[in-house]
Give the backbone structure.
Amino acid sequence: MLALIAGRGSLPAEIIASQEAQGLPRPMVCALAGHLPDGAAPELSFRIEHLGSLLIRLGEAGVTDVCLCGAIDRPVIDPAALDRDTLPLVPLFQEALAKGDDGALRLVMQIFEQTGFTIRGADELVGDLTQPAGVPTKAQPEARHRADAAAGARALVEMGAADLGQASVIKDGVILAREDDAGTDAMLATFHPRYEPPLLTRDLLEVGLDQLSQWVRTWFDAAQPQAPAPNSAPGAVLFKAPKPDQDRRADLPTIGPATAMHAAEGGFDGIIIEAGGVMVLDLPRVVAILDAMGMFLWIKERGA
């Protein structure tokens, strides 16, 4: 039996839909408190201070495999809230909190594996989440964007050494921003125009692609007269890829319709991701948004 250790976003729901489409049982959804996934009601919610008890409950429920999926914030552990079954894990918690993102995730996966669970990657469970090399959008990257891709790859090596971040914003080969603990959306928000965008609801995401494209164009055109953000960078690109030597069973970088929207708000030329290394949630909508904005999605082979 599969359990999803779920965070925010639509990835847990994507996994559930894929499993059910294959005639497999619905995975058990276990959401970290304060990080409810979209469209995937959890069977239980847990606190990190009760991780030991969660492991016992998963074993009693017949769970054999787990997948860590969805976005989570680095937790703040309340020592007073630790339960008896979690106290033996305190030294590992202390070690994890002293590490960067990937190091902390490795220790969390180690805890699950030592308890007897098999770790499954989201891209393993949903076969078409990562994409082969190519440019699925109408717009194509220009020669100058190769310098941006090369700069993004160099920045990724530096971020990997610091075990922090998987994305950067580049223009004309110059790094304008690097992802930190706040995440990709927070980084992109610094490039947004100074206006309050309309709330992007699930209802809007459910409309047809033609309607969505028209809505995006109308929204963007209406925003143009507004004052630009201090860091506004028309012509920049978002670069996102796994860190070197990253364990790809968890925290594989992800983009989706919201990412495309944020990049469009910043006036970017496009998005560059690594082929086979970045999960794309709802690729048709991502492409529709980028096509509506005249932007490209370049799915690039590492090193190419």
Notes: DSSP finds eleven helices and twelve strands in the chain.
